[in-house]
Amino acid sequence: MNWWKRLKSNNLARTGALILLIFYLAVLAAEFVAPYDPYESQLDGALLPPTQIYWRNQEGQFIGPHVYPTTQGPVDLQTGDRKLIVDRSQPSPLRLFVQGSEYRLFQIKLPLPTQFSLTNPKFEDVEILSGIPARLRLFGTTGPARFNLLGTDEQARDQFSRLVFGGRISLSIGLVGIAVSFPLGMLIGGISGYYGGWMDTILMRLVEVLMTIPSIYLLVALAAVLPPGLSSAQRFLLIILITSFIRWAGLARVIRGEVLSIKEREFVQAARAMGGRSLYIITRHVLPQTATYIIIAATLSIPEFIVAESVLSLIGLGIQQPDPSWGNMLSLATNASILVLQPWLIWPPAILIILTVLAFNLLGDGLRDALDPRSLQR
After folding, report:
1. pLDDT reading at 276 higher than 90
2. Which backbone phi and psi does 206 adopt, to 5 degrees?
3. Any idea what the Cα angle at residue 46 is, between residues 63 and 89, rounded to 5°?
4. CA-to-CA dists, residue 253 to 148, 200, 212, 256, 350, angstroms
5. What is the crossing angle of helices 159-195 and 11-28, to 10°?
6. 112: which DSSP letter?
7. How far is the C-alpha of 332 from the C-alpha of 343, rounded, in Å?
8. What is the pLDDT of residues 320-369, one digit of tens each?
9. What pairs with residue 111 in β-bridges?
């Protein structure tokens, strides 16, 4: 277990792993972490800035952290500005672990295809886990005021709640993507390298054709021809299928090169001499020897899926409103007035995407150093 000790001693890798752990735990328990329903609008609460926290009431008495009901006032006809209306008569204390609206924790619904084609796909939402009924929230207020940690969007929805729920799509698309593309790339690369000959030639030419396709243009082209009536869950599944279709080729080429050397080793020759079937030898003896590269490649490939989803959602071809994702929340950056007047709508999703990609890269670099055979021999 020298590699594990080396990984734990790598401060950058530990930092990346800690960031990812926090992010995935938060989105897994999004109903508990988010103070409000991400689809719920509050009255006269569009484009509110982050709620200001007060410590003293109007009389100057210290009563602890609290907020006041805040709404948007009428538009000033002369200046065009809108002033915030703060009701200082109703202080609402901020607390951890407060009771809120009822929800079901760990409830997951996935779209399963009942009929699939690019022009007319049909899906059925299937409930995977029924969820645990609960009302407890990580933080919130105990009064009439709402605590919008990161402000509200143009539809008066809590930005922090949408950010947490949006992370479910942006963070899971990478995991599901490699779960689809990596087995395909490993199997094609393993078969190509093990058998060689005409099979190797055909499979590698197919891989080279796929690798020449510009991924972002293919994603935009395929997403643009999809029917407009697809739900976000359906688009999520199709984005994964499209991105996985073009991501496995590079992995297959590398696996093929490793298998060419592994298949000549003594344990593979012994398995072949004992009458082992080719597919069994590939999956049982050859491919496990590439596990080091697979683990490293997986951690470095997940950010590519996250960025692909973000780019598609940013240009309006990915997850659609009102369903949140970090990409479509970042799409507001195309509006110059939002950048100037409501920057709190832009920087949180941008920072989270940057941190996630950076964390995966740090973890991948740490794994590469820890699993390097030359390092393990020291």
Report:
1. no
2. -65, -45
3. 30
4. 49, 10, 13, 5, 33
5. 120
6. E
7. 10
8. 788 888 888 888 777 777 878 888 888 999 999 999 999 998 988 888 87
9. 125
Q: What's the CA gap between 37 and 101, in Å, rounded?
A: 8
Q: Which helix (H) or strand (E) holds 242?
A: helix 232-262
Averaged pLDDT of the chain: 82
Residue type, 78: Q
Contacts of 179 (CB under 8 A, 6+ apart): none
- Asked if residue 27 lies in contact with residue 376, where contact means CB atoms within 8 angstroms, the answer is no
CB count, 10 Å around CB of 246? 19
225's tokens: 């021809």
The count of other CB atoms within 10 Å of the CB of residue 344 is 19
Q: For residue 157, list its beta bridge partners.
A: 41
Q: Which two tokens stand for residue 202?
A: 């055909």
Q: Are 309 and 327 in contact (CB under 8 A)?
A: yes
Note the Cα 351 to chain centre separation in Å.
13
Predicted confidence (pLDDT) per residue in 19-63, tens digit: 999 999 999 999 999 999 999 998 888 888 999 999 998 888 898
Show the tokens assigned to 149: 């940690």
Q: 276: which DSSP letter?
A: -
Long-range CB contact pairs, 200-209, < 8 A, 24+: 200/256, 203/252, 203/256, 204/253, 204/256, 206/249, 207/249, 207/252, 207/253, 208/249
Q: Check: CB of residue 353 under 8 Å from CB of residue 170.
A: yes
pTM here is 0.84
CA 23 to chain centre: 9
Query: Which of 23, 32, 31, 49 is closest to 354 using CA atoms?
Result: 23
Prior bond of 38 cis (ω within 30°): no
Q: pLDDT digit string (tens) for 159-175?
A: 999 999 999 888 888 88
Q: Quickly tell me which residue has 């941190």 as its tokens.
A: 355
At residue 126, φ and ψ (nearest 5 deg) are -115, 125
